[in-house]
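Objective 1b: paired records.
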Amino acid sequence: MTKWLFNVPTKAYFGEGVIEMLPKCLPARKVLLVVGKSSAKMTGLLDRVLSLIRGGGGQAVVYEGIKPNPEDWQVEEAAEILRRDGCGAVIGVGGGSVMDASKCIAGLAESGGKMADYVRRKGKADKHFTSSLPSVLIPTLAGTGSE
């Protein structure tokens, strides 16, 4: 009989004004801030999150333009920027695509390789994420399931 352990060490904070906790929850001094094409900027949320990061003594490198159903090249490009710029964590602000891409960026940056290495073929993947950088996800849509 096969036994499984499913361990998801995740903390979820939610409620009105919870974003104000971000300065105290920064997982690293320098982070990669991942957003979609335009809504975070148009609504002012991008500027608000940047202000909160700076208010907590942090720095952010912004990666903009995650599109719906992000492609592997975007995740690989963002992971390379994260490594190159010395970021120690990922903060994703957006809907399901941004949150999913952010998790992949954090895993790829730490585990290496290309996204294609982690795709299941014939029932198994060539590689598995061995570790992941810390990440904070700030959803802007309800019900995507990505959180």
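Objective 1b, second protein:
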Amino acid sequence: MARIPLVPLDLQEPKDIVDAVRKRRGGELSELDRLLLHSPQFTEGYNFFLGKVRNNLTTIPKLRELAMCTVAVVNKADYEYNAHLPLFIEAGGTAEKGKAILHLETAIQNTELFDPTEIAVLRLTLEMTRDVQVSQETFELAKQTIGGNQQLVDIVGTIATYNLVSRFLVAFELH
């Protein structure tokens, strides 16, 4: 149970904001939405922003979901990990890789399981999430494997965004 009660599942007001969230979610409100809707204005901005990050960036879906799962692991945001693991698998990842990142320090070294781009994403995500600062070595690896500047900005933006998401989940103990 979250630290504050969730708004009702059948919430209707403010209509424009609730409808926009339902549209992005395919009709239903998630538990996270029901937490965030305590602040309609925050939810409105969050919904727009997350919609763009999830649907309009150049990031390869498998790498996006790998980054999201990795943020969740580092921040101990089980809700986020459980929500994104099936999406990672659907996007071309594997259950084996999803399980491996639960032991991130080992996973980063596993060049048999993860390709160089995936390792770059894992390292970038770990350093951004745990340390905030990214080593020059990791940054260069990311530049070499992830693609051009737009792809690099998009993956860094995705990692930063899902740190925001996980911090909400953890602070409010939404598991």
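The chain is about 70% helix and 0% strand. The mean pLDDT is 96.
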